[in-house]
Design brief:
alpha/beta, Helicase, Ruva Protein, domain 3, Dna Topoisomerase Vi A Subunit, Chain: A, domain 2, five-stranded mixed beta sheet, two-stranded antiparallel sheet, 8 helices, 7 strands, 43% helix, elongated
Length: 199
């Protein structure tokens, strides 16, 4: 049975493409937009366009940025000798929001997952090695999700970074196995960072 408006149907379909949004939630969002004043909808649409048009990747850490170098990498108050390696850029926001970690980050852009056809060559590992070789790095903290792929990637990184004479640690498993960093609370992340272990 068709909806009363093809425009509403198109909007609902687009919302349903978003992660975690089912048909009912998509329909609620579409009707919510329909009830909003035109100026608010225009602002929302403009924000979506600006995100796509203006956000780029930091040339140092591979995180998201409005400029060539992100604000974290530009910050002279951060400890540049301490690099926290994460899977995705969203993990930077999760860890940084605790206010406890004062080092810098490196985004791998994924994890090793043979079933998905992702190998070490598909990740930002060479740029991490270059950062270690070209800077005075004291410690690399591996803050990857505690699952099979995260474990495999951590072991691989430990093996190839070992000869570079840099301390390599992994966050403690205060995070439940199988849980993504983005869903962990600040206290758990802080404890995981504090309890990191050398590998």
């Amino acid at each position: 049975m068709k909806k009363s408006s093809r425009y509403l149907e198109i909007l609902t379909k687009e919302f349903s493409r978003l992660p975690g949004i089912g048909p009912k939630s998509a329909s609620r969002l579409a009707f919510h937009i329909l009830k909003k004043p035109l100026t608010e909808v225009e602002n929302f649409a403009q924000a979506l366009l600006e995100v796509k048009q203006n956000i780029t990747t930091c040339k140092i850490c591979n995180g998201i940025s409005d400029e060539d170098i992100c604000l974290i990498c530009q910050d002279d108050n951060r400890n540049k000798s301490l690099i926290c390696v994460v899977e995705e850029a969203k993990d930077i926001l999760t860890i940084n929001s605790t206010g406890e970690f004062q080092g810098v980050f490196h985004v791998l852009g994924g994890v090793i997952s043979p079933l998905d056809g992702i190998g070490p060559e598909d990740l930002n590992i060479n740029s991490l090695i270059n950062r270690i070789n070209n800077n005075q790095i004291e410690e690399i903290i591996l803050a990857l999700n505690p699952n099979i792929e995260g474990d495999a990637t951590s072991l691989y990184l430990g093996k190839i970074l070992g000869p570079l004479e840099v301390k390599i640690t992994r966050i403690a498993h205060g995070l439940p196995v199988g849980t993504d960093l983005e869903f962990a609370d600040s206290a758990t992340i802080i404890k995981s960072l504090e309890g990191r272990q050398e590998i």
